[in-house]
Amino acid sequence: MATPRTAPQSPGRRKRTEMKRAAILDAAEELFVSEGFEVTSVDAIATRAEVSKRTVYDHFGDKRALFQGVLERSGDVLLTTIRAAIDEELTEDRDLREALHAFAQRVTTETFPSSVYVNFRRLNAQAPPAPRLPDGLDDEPERSLEQRFTRYADRGDLHVPDPRRAVQHFIALTMRLALDVIDEDPDLARNTGELHALIADGVDAFLRAYR
């Protein structure tokens, strides 16, 4: 089995290498989502990416590592998006209820419908032998939210004996519930009024328990 090469590269060659790597990841994501991990071949990925099969192996080693790379890339994009929502919506100078509602609403109406999130869910839902994210990486967004809830607790805005459990409750009452409803009836994804009311009820329930 080939292993990825790590020889030093000039800036121009490094750029070409990065472009090939991105093309391979794009092609692999499209095929893994549409065809599945087991059915998709390295030959098909190489053809879609317009590179040689050897180039795919040089960059990723094998198909499992490539699938892992696709998952991690999508996870990184989602983590960056959610961290931005935390930083921009859960600000210290904002009313807590308003901030929590704005955060959950933004994730539900902007992140959930995105192609990145839709593909990430489809990839992550594939049955073995498809790989999974390494332990710890799949709950990075929750840990970021835990840190913000801890800051609210330190200020006395929330009573949070267990920040992790509080985050789980908040997600379950708002974003997870909204996602479940959307999965049952995709048309509700476009009904912002209904989602707004659902999230508002969840935020109120959370605050009754933790404020």
UniProtKB/TrEMBL annotation:
Give the DNA-binding residue ranges.
41-60
Spell out the InterPro entries in the cross-references: DNA-bd_HTH_TetR-type_CS, Homeodomain-like_sf, HTH-type_TetR-like_transc_reg, HTH_TetR, TetR_C_Proteobacteria
Q: Which PROSITE patterns does the entry mention?
A: HTH_TETR_1 (PS01081), HTH_TETR_2 (PS50977)
* UniProt keyword terms in alphabetical order: DNA-binding
- Domain HTH tetR-type, by residue range, is 18-78
- Identify this protein by name: TetR/AcrR family transcriptional regulator
Which species is listed as the source? Saccharopolyspora endophytica
Upper lineage? Bacteria, Bacillati, Actinomycetota, Actinomycetes, Pseudonocardiales
